Amino acid sequence: MENNTAPERKKRVLSLIQPTAVPTLGNHLGAFKNWQSMSEDYDCLFGVADLHAITVRQEPAALRKQSTEMYALLLSLGLDPDKSIVFMQSHVPQHAQLCWLLNCYTQFGEASRMTQFKEKSQKHADNINLGLFAYPTLMAADILLYQSDFVPVGADQKQHLELTRNIAERFNGVHGKCFTVPEPFIGKAGARVMSLQDPTSKMSKSDPNPKASVSLLDTPEQIMKKFKSAVTDSEACVRYADGKDGINNLMSIYSCCTGKSYEEIENEFAGKGYGDFKVAVAESVIEELRPLQENYKRFINDTAYLNECMAKGAEKASRLAQRTLDKCMKKIGFKQI
Ligand code: ATP
Ligand code: LTN
Prior knowledge:
The protein is built from 14 helices and 5 strands. The protein has helices spanning about 1-5, 25-40, 50-55, 60-75, 95-105, 110, 115-125, 130-145, 160-175, 220-230, 245-260, 260-270, 275-300, 305-330, and strands spanning about 10-15, 45-50, 85-90, 150, 185. The chain has a 3-stranded parallel beta sheet. Helix 2 (about 25-40) links the parallel strand 1 and strand 2 (about 45-50). The relative contact order is 0.15. The site of L-tryptophanamide (LTN) has 13 residues, from strand 1 and helix 8.
């Protein structure tokens, strides 16, 4: 009976993004746009994973700059810092604290099976540090600290989320319920944006070819140029079909930015060439990014506002995080004072 009378809290959603490069249109349509719409229906926390970023060597000035820029970009999405919690991971010390505790509830074998660890160890063979190995337990700490119900992540992070669930269930099994076991959140649109130069591989912010991806901070001229040189096919007919990866990708982008269905798009461009279509796609992307870019220009130069939001985010996040950390430490058996 008691449980039935408890005030119902909204489901909680949490996601973080590493400040390692300027995000792309892929990040926007695959992640940020969902974050934006979720902030209406859920209790949301969004953060910049700057602690995760140092698992790979970073230049101090660049890390500082990119973390601030990523934070300003999150605010530019229109997330209300009074409604959602928008925070910098390193400003909330409980993340590193809980990470240590969770390390002691994670097996060497299971952490060794993480594909991201294997890939990054190969890519950065000269710096296979313990942080890289503990990357998933820090991510588990991010999630479990806030009793998150849903975590929107891309396919590459599913394995880390599965590990988080295992750690939470293990801890709860040993000590009694402490953590909410989170579920992955699959976005509505779920657009997977492909490279403009090789439409069989995904658009990625670390792609060395600048023509392959649209950065969220590209100028309208740059965006237009990139779409005009996007790889397509020789059929010259705008329709969604197997084997037309370039056009399928452009149709998917256009559909996300305008809300039009594939059928509507096919009708709109019936009898027209790819040139017209590419211009229309570029224009829809420019419009989609315009409010974000305008907000960004305002925020990035307003250090006082950014600092104020960061402090507010850290304070609110830290209050929630401390509750879970206290509970967890008590269960493990640390002496409380
Ligand atoms: P990197 O190039 O460093 O691997 P990335 O561009 O692939 O980075 P991540 O930082 O790994 O991006 O992902 C951040 C979020 O953006 C994740 O939720 C991921 O699923 C989403 N995302 C990344 N690329 C795309 C894409 N091309 N299409 C849709 N969603 C994407
Ligand atoms: N590992 C994620 C970023 C990340 C994250 C998180 C995502 C760090 N902590 C917690 C969701 C929840 C990435 O590289 N995309």
